Amino acid sequence: MRKERADFHLHTHKSNLFCRDSTNFEFQVIDKALELDIKGQAITEHGNLSSHVKALLYLKELRNKNKERVESFDFAKGNVIDFNIIKNEYEKSMDFRLCLGIEIYLVDREKIINARKNNEYTRFYHLVLVAKNLKGYRAIAKLSSKSWEDSFVFRGMDRVPVYKDYFFEWLQENKEDVFVTTACLGGELADLSLQYLKASSKEESEMLRGQIENFILPFKSILGDNFFIEIQPSFFEEQIAFNKLAIMIAESLNIKILINTDAHYLSRELQEVHSIFLRSQNAERETEQFYSSTYMMNYDELREYFPYIEEEKFDNYIDNSLEILNSVEEYDLYKPTEVPNTTISYDPQRMSILAPYVINNIEKYKYIYLYGTSQHNKIGRAS
Question: What is the β-pairing status of strands 38-46 and 152-154?
């Protein structure tokens, strides 16, 4: 059985800013999604938005190419079957929805301050945000910029934290324009849940249960149906244990589940290539458990990883992905070049040491000359 789905957690090579992470390229992700009947795919890099413009441009180019193939099809050289294949590729590319988001590191400010002060290990918890429209994307861009303003190097790695006190104010302002998933085992919900499963006393269990609720309820209160608990495919014990508990938590609190692959490479066949890529930077890096199933999948392959979820419930989770996809608007980030009006004052007494060289070789600097001598839309004029 094949069924369309959407996926809202994926990385490209632009997530390699902090350490080696993904072997995907933007164009590959879009091509693979179309091949796998994925109706919508979000790109959610670690701490940045760097891949989004290139991905949008590629999708636009692909659609134009497919449209041209349909319109220029020569029936004298090809048959109806060939035409229908080309037409189907065009329609799939037009129906495909590229979603844009980010995987942030959501942390408590005081914990980070104390950890930095004492050089102590601390967790930088993952959380996935996806824009539902252009307004939401601009809000995510603002949040990302703020995290980079607050960035620092800690224990040998660049960190781009999003502090909870700022984040929840931001979330309240943008709750209609973004949706949130709890991300992978690197998320706070997963960490608390696994601690809960390992608790050695009733008191510890009750404490962790309270912490789980305290984590979830602010998101549910602010976002309502725009908040999802994420589970991921895996045959390894830790992920399966979390998935089962996450489903119980979601059902008890009336929160919808999303199944995302958190794809770092394109297919199962590339698992060893991706593993070598990661270990080429850190030979001791564990790649067998978490990364063994972080690749793009169609419905059938995804279903293989969840034998413990009954089919009707599994399909409901798939339907959740399509439901949220239908609420995502298609938008473009294209903006024409704008040169601002400015007054350029010229003081011959303060000429830079480069100015005589530029003036004497102006033919080498065509655009500086054109800008300086242009009569269009300027207040002042460069001399």
Answer: unpaired
